[in-house]
Design goal:
Layout (H helix, E strand, L loop, with lengths): L18 H4 L3 H8 L5 E11 L2 E11 L14
Antiparallel strand pairs: 1-2
Length: 76
Amino acid sequence: MLINRLFQREKKWLLICKPTEDGFDVNDFHRLYNNRGTTLTLIQIRNYLHMKKHDSIFDGYTTKPWPSQHGFYHDP
């Protein structure tokens, strides 16, 4: 897997949420992510600007579980 090139050793990856199948609502996201522990989140946005496809990728990494409460949390 291409993402494994970032790490010293092979990692096991699990697809937790695919919005086209699981839903695009924030509640769908939290239903699947809450209390999962360490997660790497990758989000691909596909835009069409001036009739040309333009993809953007956003990512996030946390060592803390996703809580069900709203707010910002510090992850050292």
